[in-house]
Amino acid sequence: MRDFFKKRLSLAITLVMFVFGVMVATFFLIVGSIAILQHWDIISLTDHSLNSDEGRHPLHSLLILFGLCVLLGTALTAFLSKKTLNPIRKVIAATHKVAGGDFSVKVDLKGIEELEELSQSFNKMTQELSSIETLRNDFVNNFSHEFKTPISSIRGFAKLLKENHLTEGERREYLDIIITESERLAALSTNVLILSKYENLEIIPDKAPFRLDEQIRKVIVLMEPKWSSKEINVNVELDKVVYCGNEDLTEQIWLNLLDNAIKFSDQSGFINITLKNINNEIQFAIQDNGPGMDDQTKAHIFDKFYQGDTSHSQKGYGLGLPLVKRIAELCGGNVGVQSRPGQGSLFTVVLSKA
Q1: In terms of DSSP bridges, do strands 208-211 and 233-238 run parallel, antiparallel, or are they unpaired?
Q2: Which residues contact 158 (CB under 8 A, 6 or more apart)?
């Protein structure tokens, strides 16, 4: 019996029990009230009173009983409904706090299944809103940092070049730094513009059939200086796949994923690349043996300017993977990631052939 009461009740059963309880309580109150009113001779329901000249008309007694039922039922319902609606009031109050910008508020409703689900959904919503707000602040901070750093560097070394006591070697060094920082700023600006362009793009232009496996091979060859410098072993297994799409657009997927895998692979590590043609789907996978990612990093890896490496020891702007995700969506596909700390990462891209 104790276990029964510990179980969650559904909202429907709770409402039925509430209505039934009100009806039973009203019945007993009315019976008691009738007994008291008859004792005080305010109403009389006996046959003798109905036949007596001084007896009241039956309709009069019925009207009094009807009014009494309505009054007691309404009062009892109003009294009990306050407690019944308390969980809803808690949710409303919490909603007002969220609307005011407080995403730390939580609700804890117990006892009724639907209300517990509402409580869990509300808490999950506030957690996501808090995460989005944090990411928004991080986005502004990272964006400002990535632009401000090269600009400050360029400005500082440009001022040094105005000094007359510099040697020719120092001048060349400072000019090289200015050129490097300018290229970095240009690359960042280009990536932001490309991502912004694709975010606003809804229809893919210039579609044409092409060999997807050959495109991936060209990308691997193009990136050869990077993976060769780290002595990475690239294992390739590509099915022959003809895909109808925009070549420049899809090329960005393979470039960014391969660049990301090279960046985080260990020295003398490996990268496995596969392309499978399964039914009406094209499945691409790229796996590295890098440091892997925890759950928090995986949850935000496709957010703009998000970098799992908070120390910024790896060169990057946090725009490559968001770009990959957007292009995959434009192509009617999706991108996913599987990773664990210390076990590398596996990125998969699924495209539809239809």
Answers
A1: unpaired
A2: 178
Distance of alpha carbon 292 from the chain centroid: 21
Within 13 Å and on the Cβ side, how many CA atoms surround 327? 23
Separation of CA 329 from chain center: 17
Stated as kind and residue range, the H or E segment containing 218 is helix 212-222
Report pLDDT digits (tens) over 146-173: 677 778 888 888 888 888 788 888 888 8
Tell me the torsion sign for CA atoms 314, 316, 317, 319.
negative
Check the CA dihedral 197-199-204-210 and report its sign: positive
| pLDDT band for position 349 (cuts 50, 70, 90) | very high
- Tell me whether strands 345-352 and 281-288 are parallel, antiparallel or unpaired: antiparallel
Helix (H) or strand (E) holding 267: none
C-alpha–C-alpha distance, residues 87 and 81, integer Å: 11
Q: Is the pTM of this model over 0.70?
A: no
Task: Report how far Cα 13 is from the mean position of its chain's Cα atoms.
Answer: 33
Q: For residues 53 and 100, is the Cβ–Cβ distance under 8 A? A: no
Q: Which of 179, 199, 219 is a domain's end point? A: 199
- Whole domain around residue 236: which residue ranges? 208-352
Task: Give the span between the Cα atoms of 265 and 25, in whole angstroms.
Answer: 73
> Do 204 and 330 touch, CB atoms closer than 8 A?
yes
Our count of domains for the chain comes to: 3
- The answer to whether residues 213 and 239 touch, using CB atoms and an 8 Å cutoff, is yes
Q: Is residue 318 part of a domain?
A: yes
**Count, residues in the chain:** 354
344: left (phi over 0), alpha (psi -120 to 50) or beta: left
Each residue of 101-151: pLDDT tens digit?
777 778 877 766 767 777 788 888 777 777 666 656 665 666 666 677 778
- Assess if residue 91 is contained within a domain: no
Write the DSSP string, 138-176.
Answer: HHHHHHHHHHHHHHHHHHHHHHHHT-SS--HHHHHHHHH
Asked if residues 85 and 97 have their Cβ atoms less than 8 Å apart, the reply is: no
